[in-house]
């Protein structure tokens, strides 16, 4: 089990912006594929609390993660799991690690109503630069695809300055996009 503080900056990209960043920072890298299986109640109680619960699948390994808003960034609760998620699968409270169960119960979320609502596949490349981890994603879900740049940092101010510099260098208009789980649920509800 691991509890991490996640501080990251994100930007949705056009295909051309994605290609330009890939050529500059990731030209020698091959993407790896991961699949996020998103879990919520039928009435989206976690989303209403700005939380996200997923099981990430990489090859034959599965990790359950709960993301919860924190004062700065997000608090992540990460656990290796033996749960192999399937579309519309019911996730019983017994499947949840104690700390994740406790956080959900404290938020008064009905943990007997958790279901795997769908999956998003991401082809990801990562590279370390001085200020943090630069991540380039191509995601596919529900007949849609998008491209995203993420920058995971430990120092928020220095990280934001570097992220804005990268965007400016590539003439990318800066705005705060919805996160992957929000984009997935938005597409699912169309």
Throw out a few tags for this protein.
8-stranded antiparallel barrel, alpha+beta, single chain, 190 residues
Counting helices, strands and paired strands, the structural category is alpha+beta
Write down the overall geometry. globular
Q: Strand content of the residues, in percent? A: 35-45%
Distance between the termini: 36 Å
- The helix tally amounts to 5
**What oligomerization state is this entry in?**
single chain
Strand order of the largest sheet: 1-5-4-3-2-7-8-9
Helical content (DSSP H or I, runs of 4+): 10-25%
Listing every helix as H and every strand as E from the N terminus to the C terminus, the arrangement reads EHEHEEEEHEEEHH
Radius of gyration: 17 Å
**Uncertain regions: pLDDT < 50 for 5+ in a row?**
none
Report mean pLDDT, rounded to a whole number: 94
Query: How many β-strand stretches?
Result: 9
* Largest sheet: number of strands, sense, barrel closure: 8 strands, antiparallel, barrel
Give an overview of the whole structure.
This protein is an alpha+beta fold and 190 residues long. Helix content is 25%, strand content 43%. It has an eight-stranded antiparallel β-barrel with strand order 1-5-4-3-2-7-8-9. Strand 3 (52-58) and strand 4 form a beta hairpin. The longest helix has 14 residues, at 156-169. It is globular and about 50 Å long. The mean pLDDT is 94.
In a few lines, what is going on in this structure?
The chain is built from five helices and nine strands; from the N terminus they run βαβαββββαβββαα.
């Amino acid at each position: 089990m691991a509890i991490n503080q996640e501080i990251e900056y994100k930007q949705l990209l056009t295909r051309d912006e994605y290609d330009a960043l890939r050529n500059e920072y990731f030209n020698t890298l091959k993407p790896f594929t991961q699949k996020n299986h998103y879990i919520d109640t039928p009435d989206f109680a976690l989303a209403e609390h700005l939380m996200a619960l997923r099981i990430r699948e990489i090859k034959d390994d599965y990790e359950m993660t709960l993301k919860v808003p924190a004062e700065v960034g997000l608090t992540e609760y990460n656990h290796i799991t033996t749960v192999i998620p399937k579309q519309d699968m019911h996730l019983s409270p017994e499947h949840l690690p104690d700390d994740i169960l406790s956080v959900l119960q404290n938020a008064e979320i009905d943990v007997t109503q958790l279901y795997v609502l769908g999956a998003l596949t991401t082809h990801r490349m990562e590279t370390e630069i001085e200020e943090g981890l630069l991540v380039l994603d191509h995601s596919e879900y529900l007949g849609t695809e998008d491209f995203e740049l993420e920058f995971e940092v430990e120092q928020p101010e220095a990280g934001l300055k570097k992220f804005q510099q990268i965007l400016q260098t590539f003439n990318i208009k800066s705005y705060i996009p919805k996160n992957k789980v929000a984009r997935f649920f938005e597409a699912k509800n169309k």
